[in-house]
Specification:
By secondary structure, this protein is α/β, with parallel strands linked by helices. It has eight helices and 13 strands. Strands 3-4-2-5-1-6-7-8 form an eight-stranded mixed sheet, with helices on both faces. The chain has a five-stranded antiparallel sheet with strand order 9-13-10-11-12, sandwiched between helices. A hairpin with a 5-residue loop joins strand 3 and strand 4 (92-96).
Amino acid sequence: MDIDEELPPELVETETGPEEENPIKVPITIVTGYLGSGKTTLLNYILTARHGKKIAVIMNEFGDSLDIEKSLTINKGGEQVEEWLDVGNGCICCSVKDSGVNAIESLMEKKGAFDYILLETTGLADPGNLAPLFWVDDGLGSTIYLDGIVTLVDAKNILRSLDDPSGKAEGHEDHDGHGPLMTTAHVQISHADVIVINKSDLVEPAELENVKERIQAINGLAKIHVTKQSVVPQLEGFLLDLQAYDQVQGLDTAGKGHSHLDPTISTVSVSVPLLAPEQLKQVDKWLRSLLWESQVPGEKTNPDAPLEIHRLKSRLIFKNGDVKMVQGVREVFEIFDGEQICNESNGLPQTGKIVLIGRGVQGINFERSLLSKL
């Protein structure tokens, strides 16, 4: 018997085709705001200006149904696009009845690649229902990703809109009308990564300052830009390349403003001590209580203003130099690696931070609650 027959067969390299390249992911920015805030003027500028970028501007006509999750199961072969308008600067404008990921990916397949997508919502849309649809896991293989939410507000009318009972936001429990009013203007501001205060030329400087303070009280994380006639000095940082879900910024100044200025929604900041690596599980469980169950472990909440977190950002620092970032919109949150801190130079920062934007967050000792669970 040939001894070679007893040996395992040698592995032979097979010829393989060229490696599949990772698809280029296109950023999508959700543009929201009341009717009259200047969204159309802004988007018209984008569709006509010579900026050298290929941008798809999508006018969303899905309506204000909270049952928007159905869009994830649509038939890709169905008729989704109503009309197209090709414009001369490389951009394209269309209306789409379904705002789901599949609908927009299908739309891109039909008309080719774009550098950016801007999705304009209806005036009464709640961006908190839209954001989780596009903020999807990489494992789903989507070719689009959420770059951020931009909210336009009308400097002349926004304070009135925030206090107008006719603008009450749908789908937010308020226990039979008790407690402070939550309007659509509130939820459009609270979810925003960038807020453009438009029509600033129609108000006096003192009134404009009141508008800015009220907005900062609601959302202490968003970047605020003041404009006239929706004219922005540049697209990057205002509407494009926001990277709002890739990084955590503005935590050190958030929650330090006049949070009492708005009775409904405000921003609070929670200090987090240096953590041992194994304590991440406890933090994760505590966040799930907040976002999934609307409960603050060990603390009482206000029955007239039930806890409702709209936006969460956090930086957690560990004793071994690791850093974790947390992003959250409503019930959806993600914990991911941040840039590790080298503790040889200036030493580790002594605290991390969690910033919460939502209803019913005032008067609750979040820090005590978290520490009791660590």
